[in-house]
């Protein structure tokens, strides 16, 4: 990991997104590009932003909360920006038709979906998840339902396994809530079949960071799942620790130390994924997309809160 490269890219992204955009969003966008090993191109990013603004109505989350995150995802797709935006809207409509309300999270799911058929399976998995966690399962789970619903295996079993992982981790001191639910969902990425070994991996990674005095906040629970599923070993975990410390001392992360950890994880995972067999590439790309979606979902919440606060203070 090259912290100077991160700093330089963040500076270019911030300049492009403008002063009105929260720095954490600029960091999330920086991670989307660097996580995919892509150089940030201000011209292409601005072009994507302009295409979204030209084609989306004022009420569309794509032109407010999700604007720069969506632009980054679209720039990285193989299709043209226009075609990519059209596909996002088709996916979004398919999710609406499947029974989801239109929100920032359906748009986020639409950015990640490969085809329209995934919408029905996403809805079916979402309903199965609700059977176990009626009040906990909400709009924020839709991107996970979309990506996990498209994977092989019985939806009922996947949802039941999520619930078992959730209960197991609760017994080991994890706090209940959305963050733990997301972690339990990610743990089923590789297989819908329950595996005590997967629980063991998550606990071992948590203990490793604790021993290294790196505090895992609730919002970072899902990160433990990404590391467990990707199979990041001891060397990778040591790298994350040293990179986190290096980034924490960087002026960008002075106010957002928790994002130093997330950034270090994303960079290490990207390196880990590059080293895998070509057979695993589809698996890895989906996992990477899911991790970036999780980061983006956090940014959506932050951005929505900022916009709400700004609107309230100006009335």
TrEMBL record:
Family annotation (InterPro entries): DUF4003 (IPR025062)
A Pfam family recorded for this sequence: DUF4003
Source domain of life: Bacteria
Protein's recorded name: DUF4003 domain-containing protein
Species the sequence originates in: Planococcus halocryophilus
Organism ancestry: Bacteria, Bacillati, Bacillota, Bacilli, Bacillales
């Amino acid at each position: 990991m090259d912290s100077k490269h991160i700093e330089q890219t963040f500076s270019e992204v911030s300049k492009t997104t403008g002063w009105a955009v929260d720095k954490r969003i600029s960091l999330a966008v920086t991670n989307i590009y660097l996580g995919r090993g892509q150089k940030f191109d201000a011209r292409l990013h601005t072009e994507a932003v302009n295409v979204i603004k030209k084609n989306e109505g004022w009420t569309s989350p794509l032109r407010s909360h999700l604007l720069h995150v969506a632009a980054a995802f679209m720039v990285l797709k193989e299709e043209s920006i226009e075609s990519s935006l059209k596909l996002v809207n088709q996916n979004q409509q398919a999710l609406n038709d499947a029974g989801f309300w239109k929100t920032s999270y359906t748009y986020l799911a639409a950015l990640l979906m490969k085809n329209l058929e995934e919408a029905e399976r996403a809805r079916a998995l979402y309903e199965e998840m609700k059977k176990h966690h009626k009040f906990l399962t909400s709009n924020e789970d839709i991107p996970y339902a979309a990506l996990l619903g498209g994977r092989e295996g019985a939806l009922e079993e996947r949802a039941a396994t999520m619930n078992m992982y959730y209960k197991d981790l609760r017994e080991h001191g994890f706090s209940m809530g959305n963050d733990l639910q997301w972690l339990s969902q990610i743990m089923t990425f590789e297989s819908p079949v329950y595996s005590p070994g997967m629980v063991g991996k998550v606990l071992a990674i948590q203990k490793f960071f604790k021993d290294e005095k790196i505090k895992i906040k609730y919002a970072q629970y899902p990160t433990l799942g990404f590391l467990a599923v990707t199979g990041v070993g001891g060397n990778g975990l040591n790298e994350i620790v040293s990179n986190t410390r290096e980034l924490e001392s960087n002026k960008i992360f002075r106010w957002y130390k928790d994002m130093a950890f997330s950034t270090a994880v994303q960079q290490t995972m990207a390196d880990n994924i590059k080293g895998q067999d070509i057979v695993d590439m589809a698996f890895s790309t989906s996992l990477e997309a899911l991790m970036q979606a999780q980061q983006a979902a956090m940014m959506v919440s932050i951005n929505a809160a900022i916009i709400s606060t700004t609107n309230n203070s100006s009335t």
